[in-house]
């Protein structure tokens, strides 16, 4: 059986982001798809901030793992994904101070453009993003 070749573009997906701050004005960032090295760093962060619950997944029979420090995982992904016009990554301390709705929306989009939705959950042993919990 002959298979069609897998075809990809090597350009990283990007989304422009504008954040309005009453003190700093408009902050412009680019939310970028992770490269391979950044992806590995993020998945290591997920692994380091996860633990087994002692339960077995009914879905696949694997141990259920939960995120124990969701803040660290979420902040790491945004830090790796968001760059300013000088290609400097957004500081983690700054990301942690942003409103929850902003961080949540950016995190969701970052996972989507870096194809992490299923992969990160599988790596952490989660059945779905809803199984992620903070600690």
What does this structure look like?
Strand 1 (14-21) and strand 2 (25-32) form a beta hairpin. The protein contains 5 helices and 5 strands, in the order E-E-H-E-E-H-E-H-H-H. The model is unreliable at 123-135 (pLDDT under 50). The protein is 39% helix and 22% strand. The strands form 2 sheets. It has a 3-stranded antiparallel β-sheet. A two-stranded antiparallel sheet has the order 3-4. Helix 1 (36-48) runs antiparallel to helix 2. The protein has one domain: 2-Layer Sandwich (rbstp2171), CATH 3.30.2220. It is α+β, with helices and mostly antiparallel strands and 135 residues long. The longest helix is centred in the last third of the chain and has 14 residues, at 100-113.
Keyword list:
single chain; 135 residues; rbstp2171; three-stranded antiparallel beta sheet; two-stranded antiparallel ribbon; flat
Q: Mind summarizing the main beta sheet?
A: 3 strands, antiparallel
Order of helices and strands: EEHEEHEHHH
Q: Total number of β-strand segments?
A: 5
Radius of gyration: 17 Å
| Beta-strand content bin | 15-25%
Straight-line distance between termini? 49 Å
Form type: flat
Task: Give the structure's gist in a few sentences.
With 135 residues, the protein is α+β, with helices and mostly antiparallel strands. It contains five helices and five strands.
């Amino acid at each position: 059986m002959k298979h069609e070749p897998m075809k990809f573009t090597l350009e990283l997906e990007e989304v422009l982001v504008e954040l309005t701050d009453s003190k700093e004005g408009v902050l412009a960032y680019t939310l970028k798809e992770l490269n391979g090295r950044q992806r590995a760093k993020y998945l290591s962060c997920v692994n380091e901030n996860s633990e087994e619950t002692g339960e077995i997944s009914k879905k696949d029979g694997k141990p259920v793992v939960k995120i124990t420090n969701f803040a660290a995982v979420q902040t790491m992904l945004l830090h790796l994904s968001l760059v300013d016009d000088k290609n400097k990554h957004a500081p983690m301390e700054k990301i942690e101070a942003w409103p929850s709705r902003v961080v949540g929306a950016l995190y969701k989009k970052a996972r989507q453009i870096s194809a992490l939705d299923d992969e990160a959950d599988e790596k952490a042993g989660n059945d779905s993003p809803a199984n992620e919990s903070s600690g």
